Amino acid sequence: MTIDPRSHTPVYVQLAELLRQRIESGELTPGSALPSEARLTQEYGIGREAVRMAISLLRSEGLVVTVRGHGSYVRTAPERRRVELPPGASVIARVPSADERRAMQLDEGVPVLEVRGPEGDVEVLPGDEVELTRPPS
């Protein structure tokens, strides 16, 4: 796996794709540490800023979490609970507000699901913890 600095694709995007492939293939498992910034810089011959941008991109996608002073880790998927949508309900996914992120303890990149009931009532749910289902018809 190499990075092509002459490519039209920025090097940080190329690195993010390489790391994403390692996560999706199971080479990097949930909870495992990503290689250090220094190691990625040396291994791929790119600058530290490009490495940071690649990790930031993966963090925004919800694939990794970063613990200050300890490094970045493959995010462990939380247990999902089923939520049955009432008939006539609508759902939108959106970026949570800062208050919602704090209250729900959401990692960067995790959306919220806004469920609007048929009577106009709204419930905001953490997007990584629920599986929405419809009642059988």
Structure description:
The protein is of the alpha+beta class. The chain has two domains: 11-74, Winged helix-like DNA-binding domain superfamily/Winged helix DNA-binding domain (Arc Repressor Mutant, subunit A, Orthogonal Bundle); 81-133, no CATH class. The protein has four helices and seven strands. The protein has helices at residues 11-24, 37-44, 48-60, 98-104; strands at 64-67, 71-74, 81-84, 90-94, 112-116, 122-126, 130-133. The strands form three sheets. A three-stranded antiparallel β-sheet has the order 4-5-6, with no helix packed on it. Strands 1-2 form a two-stranded antiparallel ribbon. Strand 1 (64-67) and strand 2 (71-74) form a beta hairpin. The longest helix has 14 residues, at 11-24. It is elongated, with a radius of gyration of 18 Å. 18% of the residues are buried.
Structure, briefly:
The chain is an alpha+beta fold and 137 residues long. It has four helices and seven strands.
Features:
alpha+beta, two-stranded antiparallel ribbon, 137 residues, elongated, Arc Repressor Mutant, subunit A, 2 domains, 4 helices, 3-stranded antiparallel beta sheet
Topology of this structure?
Blueprint: H1 11-24, H2 37-44, H3 48-60, E1 64-67, E2 71-74, E3 81-84, E4 90-94, H4 98-104, E5 112-116, E6 122-126, E7 130-133
Parallel strand pairs: 3-7
Antiparallel strand pairs: 1-2, 4-5, 5-6
Helix pairs in contact: 1-3, 2-3
Number of beta-strand segments: 7
For the biggest sheet, the summary is:
3 strands, antiparallel
CATH T-level fold name of the largest domain: Arc Repressor Mutant, subunit A
Spatial extent as radius of gyration: 18 Å
Oligomer: single chain
Proportion of strand residues? 15-25%
Percent helix, as a range, is 25-40%
Q: Based on CA inertia axes, which overall geometry fits?
A: elongated
Q: State the strand order across the main sheet.
A: 4-5-6
**Total domain units:** 2
CATH architecture level-2 label of the largest domain: Orthogonal Bundle
Residue-averaged pLDDT, rounded? Answer: 92
Class of secondary structure makeup: alpha+beta
The H-level CATH homologous superfamily of the largest domain, spelled out, is Winged helix-like DNA-binding domain superfamily/Winged helix DNA-binding domain
Question: Count of DSSP helices?
Answer: 4
Order of helices and strands: HHHEEEEHEEE
CATH class categorisation of the largest domain: Mainly Alpha
- N-to-C span: 49 Å
pLDDT < 50 stretches: none
